[in-house]
Give the backbone structure.
Amino acid sequence: MLKNSCWITTLIVCLIVFSSCDSNRVFDEYKSVPNQWHKDSIISFNITPPDSTNAYNLFVNLRNTNDYKYSNLFLIVDIDFPNGKTIKDTLEYQMAQPDGKLLGVGFTDVKENKLWYKGQDDNPFVFNESGIYKVNIQHAMRENGKVNGVDNLEGITDIGFRVEQLQTN
């Protein structure tokens, strides 16, 4: 009996420690991409922000494998506000070092990248309308010298979106 209560106490302590390590997270969700990410496939996230006064940082999260063969990544990201306004951005992210080694965190062939999208100390993002915000993400990759885009992007396994409350000092 004592052995079981020690195990349960240890489990509860671990859960508290690990959940408190990410206290500024407001929204964090991933969606898987089956085999390849088609250029017309839009990954969408519905976000209901907790309030309309706090400032936030927004991130696009990606998981990729060694099958990703490009040094950069172009994305089109738009946010549809509850009252009809849309902000659309074309973004470029570096995905590999000059020697071809993939950037990101991970010990296996899967790397996780947290890519800054909006917000920061000098320009925080505020969800100033109440209601559901919709974030849409699609790739806009092209190969050098080619007019048409890459139809099927290989090596991306998951696309995510993350909202963090801005840290105040």
The first helix runs from residue 2 to 20. Residues 9-20 have pLDDT under 50 and may be disordered. The CA atoms of residues 7 and 92 lie 47 Å apart. The domain at 26-165 is CATH 2.60.120 (Jelly Rolls).
